[in-house]
Amino acid sequence: MKNQFFHLPDLELESGGTLAGARVAYQTWGQLNENRDNVVWVCHALTANADVLDWWPGLVGPGCYFDPAEWFIVCANVLGSCYGSTGPLDADPATGQPRYQHFPRLTIRDLVAAHEALRQELELTDINTLIGGSLGGQQALEWAVQRPALFDHLVVVATNARHSAWGIAFNEAQRLAIEADPTYAAGRPGGGDDGLRAARAMALLSYRSYSAYAETQTDPDHELPLEHRASAYQRYQGNKLVARFDAYSYVALSRAMDSHHLGRHRGSVPAALARIGARTLVLGITSDVLFPVSEQRELASHIKGAMYAELDSRYGHDGFLLETAAITHFLELFYAPTFAH
């Protein structure tokens, strides 16, 4: 499946600036039914893309819970990414040159504004399910607060109502690593790649858990290795991200994550969550140190009628991508009372 593109007029940003010449890359699967009410909209996480069948296998795709044979599935790439939507590597219409580290500051609300513009372009007036995890969950919550009558169901996994000081600190540590790479400030293709390797190694410590590393990366007994398994794993993951992502986009999107605060200019977080009209499923992950279950419990306690459950996973935050069988189980419980799937 190839990206489709929607071009927006200049987008007014929450920070007060403007993103000129914006486009949104998106993909769709399946067909709208006669009533146009079988829509599932997926919001992706930090370094993912619009191809949800690729990065959420087991949950979305043929034979999965969200099967294109039954659902019309939409996933749009966020602004600031390097996967088709307007990002730091794209030329500024005013100069004809890429913006690189001078790309405008985006917030979660800006990402949602682009999704909302695309939704209107696609003439989708009833979305059965809005779903997302991590950064995708932040987008889904913000959108559900803004448009309480649009979504029938909301499913959020490993996310929060406001990005925590702990999460912001993790992101800033990663940005410091990227900015310490002198090629980042040079503003060129591949700028900051060495810093991005280090940033990814840092991030992985917040995505996984102590037990996951102990089970998979512990060195054999009675050996003195030239390189520890855990060391090699961190380097492998850093190289893997550099091969598919961009440091300038990583900085832009981690800053957008930091901006997430449903209560900003809405009185409070509880007041914002009380606006949500969708029937909601909130899932936490017991071993998640980046988005601890206390944050998901907060969501469920302030969203009227929300169903709350926890995934007992050893994978930490990455469990939202890996524990698709458990997520499917809770989706079946969630939909059973009101929706004959």
Which features would summarize this protein structure in a list?
341 residues; Rossmann fold; single chain; 13 helices; Rna Polymerase Sigma Factor, Chain: A; AB_hydrolase_fold; alpha/beta; HAT_MetX-like; two-stranded antiparallel sheet; 10 strands; homoserine O-acetyltransferase activity; EC 2.3.1.31
Descriptive account of the structure:
With 341 residues, this protein is of the alpha/beta class. The chain has two domains: 4-166 and 261-335, 3-Layer(aba) Sandwich (Rossmann fold); 167-256, Rna Polymerase Sigma Factor, Chain: A (Orthogonal Bundle). It has 13 helices and ten strands. The protein has helices at residues 52-55, 108-122, 135-146, 165-179, 182-185, 193-207, 210-217, 229-242, 247-258, 269-273, 293-302, 319-322, 324-335; strands spanning 4-7, 11-12, 18-19, 23-29, 39-43, 72-76, 127-133, 151-157, 279-285, 307-311. It has an eight-stranded mixed β-sheet with strand order 1-4-6-5-7-8-9-10, sandwiched between helices. Strand 7 (127-133), helix 3 (135-146) and strand 8 (151-157) form a beta-alpha-beta unit. Helix 2 (108-122) packs across helix 3 (135-146), helix 4 runs antiparallel to helix 6 (193-207) and helix 4 (165-179) packs antiparallel against helix 9 (247-258). The longest helix is centred in the middle third of the chain and has 15 residues, at 108-122. It is globular, with a radius of gyration of 20 Å. The model has no long low-confidence stretch (mean pLDDT 96).
